[in-house]
Amino acid sequence: MKxxxxxxxxxxxxxxxPDPRVAALVDRVDDLEGRVAAVEKKAxxxxxxxxxxxxxxxxxLPVDGQDAIRGPDHAKVTIVEAYEYACPYCAMIEPxxxxxxxxxxxxxxxxxxxxxxxxxxxxxxxxxxATCAAAKQDRFEDFSAALWERSWKTADGRPQMQxxxxxxxxxxxxxxxxxxxxxxxxxxxxxxxxxxxxxxxRLNLARIGVRGTPSLYIxxxxxxxxxxxxxxxxxxxxxxxxxxxxNGAVASxxxxxxxxxxxxx
Length: 265
Known about the structure:
Elements: H1 2-13, H2 20-42, E1 68-70, E2 77-83, H3 88-103, E3 110-116, H4 121-135, H5 140-151, E4 152-155, E5 158-161, H6 168-177, H7 182-190, H8 192-207, E6 215-218, E7 221-222, H9 229-246, H10 250-259
């Protein structure tokens, strides 16, 4: 626009005598300016970027006995994982979390709480409900490991989803092979309680900024570093040191953190 105005000004200023060609060119410049202004007026306003969680802030992520927990019931450090079974990056981070838990086994340092955040509802909803049903029988860890193995294979170093592994018949078969009561499992899979739990977790996670999977929160703080065992272990050790400085009680530490946690972005 500024360049067009400059052209019109120069042409008008350099006009020594009336020249119809110059006048016509100025008219064309004026017309172009009008068209540009009309386009700019119709152009949609830029969409505001969604707010992102602040890694320095503790966010509210309640944990209770109905959650899928690996590790001790209480720990100095709680990693809450938002994930789904149709996510390739979740399949990639699963062995990392398993190795991380092995590193702290036998201590009260770490537990991993797995909460479903379904991004692909047609593929992952039944699997999400199935983990709830397995957790009701205290068999989440065995069931989840078997489900990952059934629904994902590795080819050329990359995970490849086996879609039939997430279908209802496959879920029930995995439950049977994992030692669950299949009849109870099927009833919980279809029951309203697990559906309500799935929706409550989705709302809680979305409220604090979860938009995709996997998302990790370490003692309520969003983790944004490398997703390797060593990098996560460093973050865990930092939280253990924070706990030690506070002289807290392991049994109530996470609940205490949640009391002053931010509930929304």
